[in-house]
Write a structure and sequence with these properties.
3-stranded antiparallel β-sheet, 9 strands, 2 helices, mainly beta, single chain, 6-stranded antiparallel β-sheet
Length: 155
């Protein structure tokens, strides 16, 4: 097994707390079939690899399934085959989520995420983008998202 290398100044390995909590609450996990033929929404994103860095531009989401009162935000990270999560570091802080969009099922995120890693390391990862509803009095609720293996993505 090859050990991945990157600078801890750019990437942080940590637990994604929303996903960890969701695993303990099976009734919160929505399978695709639970949408009853209604789309969970669309996510507009671009992915590029240049200068030893994976660039993710999260443009927007449209027609998110949910109530108008929901306040979506998105998180973006890489997940290894061992389920470890890797987040970008920017200005000495972990930067893994967008702003919260109050009562908006069509948020325009316009947010850039960067993962400074070798292409060999990137190819062993999956890209995870998840949209959550920000709750002030309880745990945030999952709204939509995806996980994409980067193994066969052509940049």
């Amino acid at each position: 097994m090859r050990r991945m290398t990157w600078s801890s100044a750019h990437i942080e390995e940590k637990v994604e707390t929303n996903a960890e909590y969701r695993k303990t609450q099976p009734h919160k996990i929505r399978e695709f079939s639970s949408y009853d033929g209604v789309s969970p929404g669309r996510i507009h994103i671009s992915v590029d690899y240049r200068n030893e860095c994976l660039h993710i531009f999260l443009d927007s989401a449209m027609d998110l399934a949910g109530k108008r009162s929901q306040d979506p935000y998105a998180i973006c990270y890489l997940m290894g085959n061992d389920k470890r999560c890797y987040f970008q570091i920017e200005n000495n802080q972990t930067n893994n989520e967008t702003d919260v969009f109050k009562q908006d099922l069509n948020p325009t995120f316009q947010h850039q995420f960067k993962f400074r890693m070798s292409l060999m390391d990137i190819n062993q990862m999956s890209l995870v983008v998840a949209i959550w509803d920000k709750d002030s009095k309880s745990a945030d609720d999952y709204m939509a998202g995806f996980r994409l293996s980067l193994k066969d993505v052509q940049y």
